Amino acid sequence: MSAVADTHAQDHHHGPAKGMTRWLLTTNHKDIGSMYLIFSFAMFLLGGSMAMVIRAELFQPGLQIVEPEFFNQMTTMHGLIMVFGAVMPAFVGLANWMLPLMVGAPDMALPRMNNWSFWLLPAAFLMLVSTLFMQGGAPNFGWTFYAPLSTTYGPPSTTFFIFAVHIMGISSIMGAINVIATILNMRAPGMTLMKMPLFVWTWLITAFLLIAVMPVLAGVVTMMLMDINFGTSFFDAAGGGDPVLFQHVFWFFGHPEVYIMILPAFGVVSHIIPAFARKPLFGYASMVYAVGAIALLSFLVWAHHMFTVGIPIFGQLFFMYATMLIAVPTGVKVFNWVATMFRGSMTFETPMLFSVAFVILFTIGGFSGLMLAIAPADFQYHDTYFVVAHFHYVLVPGAIFGIFAAAYYWLPKWTGTMYDETLGKTHFWLSFVGMNLAFFPMHFLGLAGMPRRIPDYALQFADFNMVSSVGAFMFGATQLLFLFIVVKCVRGYGEKASAKPWEGAEGLEWTVPSPAPYHTFATPPDVK
Amino acid sequence: MANNQTYYVPEQSKWPIVATIGMFLLMYGVASIMVNNSQGEPTQASWFMFLAGALVMVYMLFGWFGSVIRESRAGLYSEQMDRSFRWGMAWFIFSEVMFFAAFFGALFYVRVFVVPWLGGEGDKGTSAMLWEGFQANWPLINTPNPEAYPPPDGIIGPWGLPLINTILLVTSSFTITVAHHALKEDNRKKVKIWLGATIVLALVFLGLQAEEYVHAYQDLNLTLQSGIYGSTFFMLTGFHGAHVILGTLILIVMMVRIQKGHFTGDNHFGFEAASWYWHFVDVVWLGLFVFVYVI
Description:
heterodimer, A: 528 residues, mainly alpha, disordered N terminus, B: 295 residues, Helix Hairpins, Four Helix Bundle (Hemerythrin (Met), subunit A), 2 domains, copper (chain A), translocase (chain A), transport (chain A), transmembrane (chain A)
């Protein structure tokens, strides 16, 4: 590999601009990546504080802190903010930072559009959060906004929610187009598709999923908009429509969406486990094919979210078997991660701790997903806390732990400073314990029949709910420690990081200095 | 994969943030017009916000595309940049295809499942309880609840205006291709004639489509409110029409650029992208003609 040092060859390649204009007007993938990550963490705290309200209300049976209407707004906004504001932008931020470094490109393919993709997000969330202060309150129908709850019975602010979703969708589609153009067109000479790092592969497939399904989300909210404001009857049987139509279109978006939130984490973990096991990734090609298979299958399983609405028996069987099929490529991935660790000379720095926890806990979430996929059993679990436990197990120790692992792994590259290992490990263990305390009891609550999205519950559920709330508070408070750790790194307090601080790490990103110069790979390196 | 040439990374640009402000004002304005309307509150301020947003967006579009055109004509873009634009446009069109797929999917689901079920088919039987005597048929010229959704008196047959429109759009796909080939040969007079013909065909299409809508609303009582037939009909043809309007604007911009002497025989991706978009609009129409009008 050559030409790794920062080059000032071109006149316009200088350092960052001073002041606010640097951030407002930037076309630099590193600046934009940082903004995405900061925005995502801010949304994580906002959505998290809403979760704290939910858990505080559920600490004890009975209504004590908030009105039921407000509780519904909290569950809705918590879900929307975490999905669209925290997890997705965090992965786009990682993509912005790392893809050009990993493929040896000077920047993203379309740098100005990249900045627009970012800045649309604060606009969208300003609009979404402003609904909290509107007459009739914020959306209160759950993050899945099922019709007719959201159409006939939704608050007036639903129209603002719809336009906020449109803006998020535009942002995501442009971000995804940028990612695909960068990966397909900007790779350094010699980097063939099957030599691409797995984070690049998983993002390529994620971007494809985004472009395929975000427009479908735009379509379904447009149908809602028309039903609410212009008298159409897409979701009203009185006019020949069907509320179930909403669920079909929504989940055609929604199921690929959940893979959008996990595939980049698969990529991250596939970098970190080999680095700290000091062994090459086991089964690279099978990892790529497995991600592809998961993505394709994700288009064929949407109705497993709707077993109880009364779809024909053939449909139930088809979607049940198709869903179970996903366990095969997912199993390939888990097996490969374990095989990579097997007989490796492992060390457990913070990124590795998060990654190992990812493999174990995501697998638990995968297994509860398998249980939910069984149509007859799903009739029992549907809309109970078992579902809440399931998707929090794939999203918190899945997506979020993947993001934390990535942040610790690449922080030295971003900031030039090593994070505090003791604090990092403390963050991990408190998060690990807090998260399991919060979500594991929900399995039992759900199996015993506690319904989700209800601010009150029967006395028999009191103990587990209290444990769950304590765990949630612990997990929530711990995230302030993460903020402290990152700020410390950004401010430069800590050991200076070398270009390659992890001895087992592989990839082009470790060939540039730490912190990565403002412009890297102005001329692409050669990849052997 | 890249070869080792340098890739143009633009300087700082104000256009993304201008575009964000424009889009926020526009969308917030539209939403508050709708909400205030439904609650019987005044909408002047909302309209002002919407128009301000629209103006900012127009300013942004001229400015942003203007910079791209200037950079391109200054020779700052490499072949690799050209490929980025190609990938970008291709995937953008794919996203548009998926947007229409949502509405086509809704149409198919309604026709294959919902309406027969409402008519009592299978073991669903809901309509037998809710709307006794509802007869399922397609086109749905009776709705389960005619008070809430007054049914249309008739629908638009395929073999009148829609057939003419089909011929117009298919012809326009040919004319734009002829114009593209003429541009490749650097025969600019020929480009202007055939591109001009494409624009005329597009405008005639839009005029006929408007006439069809007036006919539907005034004579047939076929409206957005007349049940699921009207909903799917107007949403599919309406979104298609909106895309034709956008496509026509793009073609007009291409005409202006040709007049100004932009593009060369081997470097004219702007024109090619416009023609890709036009073909996409045409293909969507063929789907509409078959599934909305004929079948």
